[in-house]
Specification:
Blueprint lengths: L2 H4 L9 H8 L5 H10 L5 E4 L5 E6 H13 L7 E4 L2 E6 L3 H11 L12 E3 L4 E4 L11 E5 L11 H15 L22
Antiparallel strand pairs: 1-6, 2-4, 2-5, 3-4, 3-7
Helix pairs in contact: 2-3, 4-6, 5-6
């Protein structure tokens, strides 16, 4: 069992087994792994769809999803931050299934809920450098791959996390918004 599923997340480095797992997504894993070993501080593009899918969210919303997964759910698989996006590695098939589940939940009806980008077969994603300290602070692993077979959340788990994160982001108030034309009086100072 992977420690990625059971340990709290923190900035981390990829282990040799984790690097082998990432390389296995490529058609020529040995070449991919050799290139990554030769340049450990370089980001790398990897194919999605066979070994993993990736769900990309804006970093703040993605952080809410990750927090929900660790506080109330099963944890996460590998998670990275790259150029203002949170990359959640997911089980293959998630990229096809999650968008329809989100539509079914009527997710995204509110204007303040960001769209999730789902990367699956035929897509590639850039992943942060293998080294623990990246040249760019906007590119790092929060939960680095540490085994050849990490646990990966499926579409239902990520749907649950997205819905919880969206509900957390919505503020509920008993007072109407100012643009609704309602007259609101402060009666707390009356004698």
């Amino acid at each position: 069992m992977s420690s990625t599923r059971n340990a709290p997340f923190s900035p981390a480095s990829i282990t040799a087994d984790g690097a082998a797992w990432l390389a296995s997504a490529e058609p020529y894993p040995r070449g991919s792994r050799a290139l990554r070993d030769e340049r450990p501080a370089a980001s790398m593009a990897l194919a999605c769809g066979s070994v993993f899918d990736v769900v990309s969210a804006p970093v703040l919303f993605g952080r809410r999803m990750v927090d929900r997964l660790w506080k109330e759910g099963p944890g996460t698989g590998p998670v990275a931050v790259l150029r203002g996006r949170m990359l959640l590695f997911a089980a293959p098939g998630t990229a096809q299934r999650l968008p329809s589940l989100l539509r079914w939940e009527e997710f995204g009806r509110a204007g303040d809920v960001p769209a999730l980008l789902c990367h699956g077969p035929g897509d590639a994603v850039t992943v942060p450098a293998r080294a623990g300290t990246s040249a760019s602070p906007s590119s790092r692993w929060l939960v680095a791959p540490d085994t050849r077979h990490p646990w990966l959340p499926g579409p239902e788990v990520l749907l649950w996390a997205a819905v919880r994160a969206a509900r957390e982001a919505v503020r509920i108030s008993i007072f109407p918004h100012a643009d609704q034309g309602a007259k609101v009086y402060d009666v707390s100072r009356r004698r």
